[in-house]
User: What shape does this take?
Amino acid sequence: MAARKGRPSLSHVDAGGRPGMVDVSAKAATLREAEAECLVVLPQAAADALREGGLRTKKGPVFDTAIVAGTLAAKRTHELIPFCHPLAIDACRIGIEFSGERTVRIACRVGTLARTGVEMEALTGATVAALTIYDMCKALGQGIEIGPARLLTKRGGRSGDYALAP
Assistant: This one.
């Protein structure tokens, strides 16, 4: 879509209003990094049971399984989101910890040398890790909440660096 004066345009929509993948073939490959987070809020009984069980459920080690799932998802983002480019992910690191009495914080940092950024890969990794925690903990209690999921930082690319305002 053509940008109106002073307004940004959608990068995945052409002048005719049709969706499509952005052509990045003329761009130079540069270092791209992004970090996203997603929160999971557990009911108190579920948080207590998870802590008392050594972060394990009958399905296995919750945080370790979520890290594996989030990493796999980051690497396969292009299979889930139609206009994401397939990228060779050079780095993916997921950290998971309790950040409050009932809140689990998931941070996913992704890096690559590519022609396009890895924001979607970081967001996908964090949210799939959150969904995995939900799946593994749902037997401990209903009412699990996921979110917000948000981009924290990004480096590289034409649009420059970004950091979420505190």
User: Anything to note?
Assistant: The radius of gyration is 18 Å. The chain has a mean pLDDT of 90. Helices lie at 44-52, 62-75, 77-80, 119-137. The beta strands are 30-41, 56-57, 60-61, 91-98, 103-114, 145-155, 162-163.
